[in-house]
Every structure is written in C-alpha cells, then in structure tokens.
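I am still getting used to backbone structure tokens and would like to learn alongside you. Would you supply a protein for us yourself, any chain you care to pick? Start from the sequence, derive the backbone structure tokens from it, and show both lines together. Go ahead whenever you are ready, and we will take it from there.
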Amino acid sequence: MKQSHIEVTERIIEKSRPTRTAYLQRVDAMIKREKSTGRLGCANLAHAYAAMPSNDKFKVVVEKAPNIGIVTAYNEMLSAHQPYVGYPDIIRDEAHKLGATVQVAGGVPAMCDGITQGEPGMELSLFSRDTIAMSTAIALSHDVFDAALLLGICDKIVPGLLIGALHFGHLPCVFVPAGPMATGIDNTTKSKVREKYAQGLVGRDELLASESAAYHSAGTCTFYGTANSNQMLMEAMGLHVPGAAFVHPNDDLRELLTREAVKMVLNNTKQEQFTPIGKLVDEHVIVNAMVALLATGGSTNHLIHWVAVARAAGIMIDWTDFYHLAKTTPLLASVYPNGKADVNEFQSAGGPAFVIRELIDAGYMFPDVFTVAYGGLRDYGKLPVKEENKLVWKDLPKESLDETIVRTAAFPFDESGGLRLLKGNLGRSVIKISAVPPDRHIIEAPAIVFDAQEELLAAFDRGELEKDFVAVVRFQGPKANGMPELHKLTPPMAVLQNKGFMVAIVTDGRMSGASGKIPAAIHLTPEASAGGPLAKVRTGDIIRLNATVGMVNVLVDEDEWAEREVEELSDTKRHHNAHDLGRELFGGMRKNVLSAEEGAITWL
C-alpha cells in the first residue's frame, strides 16, 4: 500500500477509536441474541408470518430457515428503479431453491433529482437521504430477518439505504442494482442544446426532444453523476455482487447477478462465513470508497454522503481526509461530465473492474477486506460473464480497451484525483476540477451576490452578466432550505464562460453530481444561515478562487471584514423556503441538521 494512504487510514482509525469501538460493541450484542423465532412472543411471530404461504411458515418457524428481508426503493418515477418491479419474485424464487424464505420488509421513498432540479421539491432532496435511512430502519425494525437485500441505485437512495443498514450492523446485507439505460443522445450534444436554449437560440420543443433522447427508457441515467458514482462506490466497498453495477436491465446477465446476490447474502449468514455489514464496512473499506470516488472524478455529493455513511458505522472522516487522499490518488477515468464517454462506454472499456484492479495493484486500495463475495476485493477487479447459463468471472486485459476513457495507474489522466479542498476567509469548501479547463483553475473577479438561484437566472435573462464575475449564491445550505442542487445555473454560466468571460460560482449549496466545466466552490461551510462569512460578502467585493493551491478568499481589508455585519435571509424568503410542497414537514431537519462537512446529518 502507498504510505500516504496508510497514514490517512491510520489517522481515521485513531480518531474513530471511541465511536467505532462503541458501534462494534452494539453490533456484537445484537449478534449474540437468540434467533427471532425463539426470542419473540408467539403473537409477534404470528403477525410477522401471517401472510406467508404455509410452506414458508413451516420453513421459518419449524426448520429455522434463514429469512431474508427486502428493502426496496421501487417506484415508477425513477427510470433507474422501475426495473425493480419484478425483483422480489426473482429473489423469492432463488431463496426457495436454497431453502430460505423472503419477505419484502418495506419500501423507502425515492425521488428523482432530475425531475425536481430548480423546483421547490429539490429542497427535500438532501433530507430524503435521512428519511430513507429512517424508512430502512422501520422496515428492518420488525427484527425477524437473518439478512437483508437492499434495492436502490440513485442519488440519496443508496446512501440512505446504507446508513439505515449500518444501524442494523448485525445483519449480512447485499446491495442489488438494476443497471443503466442504453446510450441515447450523447451528453455533449445534450449540453450544447441546453446552452442554446439558455441563449434563446432554440425553443422548448427542441430542448424537450433533446432531453427525451437522453433520458428515454428504464435504467439509470448514463452520465457519471451521483447515481452512477453510488454504483462505483458499492463495487469498491464490496457490497455488490462483483461487476453488477453497469449491466443493462434487460441483459440476460442481470437476472443471474440478482440471483447471485441471494446466494451471497445467504452464504454470509453461515457461521463459518458470517459477514454482517457493520463489520464489513470498516475504516479500510471507507478509505477504499473514498479512493474510488477520487480516482474516477465522481460526484461531489459524496463528500457529504460518505461522511454520513462512515459516521453510521462509527467512523469519523472529513474533507481533510479526502484532500490528503486526493493529492496522491491518480485519476483513471474520464466519463461525462469529466469526459465525453457515458457509463455504458465506461463499462465497455473496462469499467469499475478495471479501475479497482489498477488501484489494488498499484497500492491505492486495501485488497484484504471483507466483502459480500467469497474472495475479497480482488473479485471486483474481474468481469462477470454468462457461460452455459451460469455466472463466471474473467480477468480483464492488462491494457485499457480505450485510453480515452480508462487508463492504467502507470498512465493516468492526472496524478491526483478530481476533487480539491478549498480554505480561506470564506470558510471551507470543495471543488471538482476534473472537468474544469486548466486555465480556469484560478479566477479573480468581483462578486455578484444572489440569495436564490432564481435571481441569477433572471439577471442572466436581462443580459446583466456579460462580464467577469463570481456568482455568490448564498442561503442555499442545509439549514437555509435543505441545500438543493443548483444544476440549473450550469447552462447560463457555461454560455458566459464560452464567450470568454472569467466566471465562477461560490455557494453554500450543492451543484449536481453532473457539475462540469464551471469553477464552483461548493458546500461552503459554515453556511450563510449559520452566520458563516458568506453572509458578509457584498456585490463588488473581489473574490479569488484558486483551485491550484486550494484557497477561496474575499479580498477585503481585514479590519473592515472583521467589522462587517452578517446579513440574514429576509423573512419573505425564509417563509418561502419553509412552505408548500411538503417543506413544512422538514422544518425539524432544517433546524437540527449538522454542517455539510459533518455529513448534513439530521439523526444525531
């Protein structure tokens, strides 16, 4: 292993010692309990199994057969999750063949950020993660399961399911994906149409035709945003059947992978192979996930989500840990928005398996960790194929099948990962630079302050932004309005950048997992609504964003800056953020949420 990665891991282990020890003690106490069929009261058991077929009741009560709980995020609003409609039947059929029983323990909410982008519903998006975690807990709280299969793919769903599962750390768990949709219109063309629409060069009909050609069928969206970054991280953490991430929903291989998930989770319930998720997800596995994110230029959202995931397992990480790993982790993938390829092309070029193999062989990932598979993390560096209606895993070629998409660790796209930590008198922030042109890594320009993304869009439409400037979009943090993604700002800002203006965004909000070529200092902490320095910035202040050295500062005299008052969000805007489309129900979360760097956690 690289000494730098060992040192980061050792620091994480040391600072996590009290919380991790306490967590494992709780897990061990749960493991030592008697099986539910002997522990629960007769009325409890009768309720639990009332709807089961008689044969299944006999298996679980008399024969003490393993009972698998399914937690599903199936719905028809998410194209990625629609294929799950038939999964319980497949899982039940395979479990019966193996002498086990299955119950759908519960469903969790799953919203589509693509539908709510720029709309009030997006203000529920981040908080939906913890809602999903709590829903997972409710599903598993019936406490009659020996293992769990978790069906989810997209942005907040996988982190939420994982946080929930880690609070049932005594259970073996496997995550079951469903795969991406087939490639539609290429992402570069899609982005150009969006930019033309922002300029009024094409109409709504042409824009809708373009978007519908990109998002056209069941399966995950094909750009490398948060949803597909989730899948990469599940592979790197050993929580999938190896290679399951990016197989099309209708590929014959998909059902075999789903059936294999049943075999693996049952195998992990056996005494000699017992692998509960709370012990599987340790400090080394969390570091492996962080490295995989950095090596592929994955979603910035995971600098929030994986802090929360780690915390759920008693492991303490922060953006400084990401920063130190990023300095020495090579960038091995170029997938849109960091390149032109989509995830189907990424998979064809070698995909997660190629990246994981390279990272292990070059000493950037820990191979000797628990996984749900039988042979450890090296199994995730191989490709699943179907032979005689069975799954087998084969080695990938030593060299990349397409060096414009994936590369070996000896020939990376960059010597360091695609994420940077920014520090300065505006607080702590992160920036994704893997898609930002090198000549835009340093921006110094006057600030224009906006208290809502709609204000910036309106100023663009009025033609007021044809100049160099830094857009300060504040009161967008978790406490203010749930920290919505500000992805709708990307097309107009891209138009301005393409015209030659030096522009950037500085915000306490999030950009999309698909944030691209615009320099954006995001997740600024402390946020404006918590009295952070962003609330002291005034239009005309000079801001310097330097991604090369990792700084973001307002260039104001120190004495003047110290005396300047913090502005507050107007009562009208505060009222707007708290009402309609269910936002009232999340008032407690806005009040109690921790900072972005602390994972925007609402459950502590």
The chain has two domains: 15-33+66-182+217-316+364-381, 419-598. The mean pLDDT is 94.
